[in-house]
């Protein structure tokens, strides 16, 4: 009987955890869901006091080459995705992202203190908190991940206030919206609306003390929120729908303004 993809990943991570520099390993998403090739990928976070060198990692990988079809090392080097090595295991892209414990703790601290309120090139700093809060612990020698998850289980009130204020101040660029309405310019309108919705959602999640991860499962999240405008998700869809018709842009924008007003009433901003 052959090894399953779960068995292969477990074996590979067991070897990685044997490195003296490694203190913790966690997997994002549903740990029991095994995607089909091309359907999704698997993300693994690896933490240590230091990041093992290219040579140290390669020795481990080469020794276990029967577990994967391909391996590309250093696909990213530093930054929000850490030092990344990508494997193809039974056709499924599996990425190991290495971070130092110190840089992770500093990054999380900066986010919780409100020093990283905005997205950066499509990456949401609070999204990293969401990832770490919900990460599945695979290896945790010094309880680093379990302690971090416990800390992140409480969304700071100060962060909620800062996030709400920052993003609510950016949800309605009246000058650009009015330019789009005047010209009945659907494409430009959607550019302005896209940025506005991004800020709106980040404020809405903050009000509900939920780390904003991304646009994924937006309806599921909004449906679960207690603090939200009436029919919030339905109205967001209507704003988008009417925004696709040059003759309905005014209607779209009026509903957008109402949504913004209703959220401001909730946030008291």
Walk me through this protein's architecture:
A six-stranded mixed beta sheet has the order 3-4-5-2-1-6, with helices on both faces. It has two domains: 5-154, Beta Polymerase, domain 2, CATH 3.30.460.10; 159-267, Four Helix Bundle (Hemerythrin (Met), subunit A) (Up-down Bundle). The chain is 50% helix and 16% strand. It starts with a helix and ends with a helix. The chain is built from eleven helices and six strands. The mean pLDDT is 95. It is elongated and about 65 Å long. The chain is an alpha+beta fold and 269 residues long. The relative contact order is 0.10. It has helices spanning 5-17, 54-63, 101-112, 125-134, 144-152, 157-168, 174-183, 186-207, 218-224, 232-242, 249-267, and strands at residues 22-27, 42-48, 70-77, 83-89, 92-100, 136-140.
Describe the protein's topology.
Blueprint: H1 5-17, E1 22-27, E2 42-48, H2 54-63, E3 70-77, E4 83-89, E5 92-100, H3 101-112, H4 125-134, E6 136-140, H5 144-152, H6 157-168, H7 174-183, H8 186-207, H9 218-224, H10 232-242, H11 249-267
Parallel strand pairs: 2-5
Antiparallel strand pairs: 1-2, 1-6, 3-4, 4-5
Helix pairs in contact: 3-4, 4-5, 6-8, 7-8, 8-11, 10-11
Spell out the key features of this protein:
Four Helix Bundle (Hemerythrin (Met), subunit A), 2 domains, 50% helix, six-stranded mixed β-sheet, Beta Polymerase, domain 2, elongated, 269 residues, alpha+beta, 6 strands
Q: Quick one: CATH class of the largest domain? A: Alpha Beta
Mean pLDDT: 95
CATH architecture of the largest domain: 2-Layer Sandwich
Rg is: 22 Å
Number of strands: 6
What strand line-up does the widest sheet have? 3-4-5-2-1-6
What would the principal axes of the Cα set say about the shape?
elongated
Total helices: the number is: 11
Tell me about the biggest sheet? 6 strands, mixed
Provide the CATH superfamily of the largest domain.
Answer: Beta Polymerase, domain 2
